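In response to reviewer comment 3 from the previous cycle, which asked for concrete evidence that the modeling workflow produces usable outputs, we include below a single protein chain processed end to end. The sequence was submitted unchanged, and the resulting structure tokens are shown without manual editing.
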Amino acid sequence: MRRCTWLDSADVVVCDHVEGVVSAPQGPYFGPLAHGFACGAHIPVHVSGAWNALDDPVRDYQGDRETLADSWGVETAEDWSRQVDYLLAGLNVGTEADAVLNVRRTLLRQQGHYDLRTWQNAVGTSARGQTVDVDELVELAAVITRYESRFRTDGLLSPDGIVTSVFGYDFGRAVNMARWGFGGRFCDYRTAERIVLRAGELCRQHYSSWADFSAGYALGRVIRFDDEQYGHLYASVLGPHRLLIADASSPWWHVPFA
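The workflow returned the following structure tokens.
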């Protein structure tokens, strides 16, 4: 049974996690591979797993196979490889949110400022003529605005911070797909390592800091699954974020992002 601990006597819960970030002594602590693993750290922190190691193909084989089948529909090496490709391409979280965020970046670059109405109008204009639901994209700008307001309150964003991309959610999960794929014997170590390294490279292309990446990862998760409920799916990313940002044993303290 998983234990859940409330942190800071507030409204943040991290299941199984009691004393801090777990590291594998034999795992990397510095360099590109450590950076890639650190991009996938939200999930292992949530379940008290080591952030810097792949799963064991002997000890974790059955559990990883069950996790991949139940949560991802992955039952073969081909299924697993397909999911890795989707994640590294940002196709699991989808391109809609980043398209909306790109419109805001354009407004900021051109005008130096924006408000929600201007942003929504620009989203509608940019989406016309495309095979998308324009109203859904326009509303997504409002959803993002509300989540960002909550993120600022909870410390996921600075007081004037905004999210730049949600693709980090897929890139971070690609690291874990490599971890589970090796543990589930769907790939060899070199293949898993290449995925971790590639995910780290992609995070560097889209973000400028660990805080920037984590906010994007969190927004990708809640847009995908939370539906503005601010329940377990939100708490389960906020708790790891706070630990990774604040705990001195976190890789985010000693692994440079850039």
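Residues 134-154 form the longest helix (21 residues). We consider this sufficient to address the reviewer's concern, and the full set will be provided in the supplementary archive.
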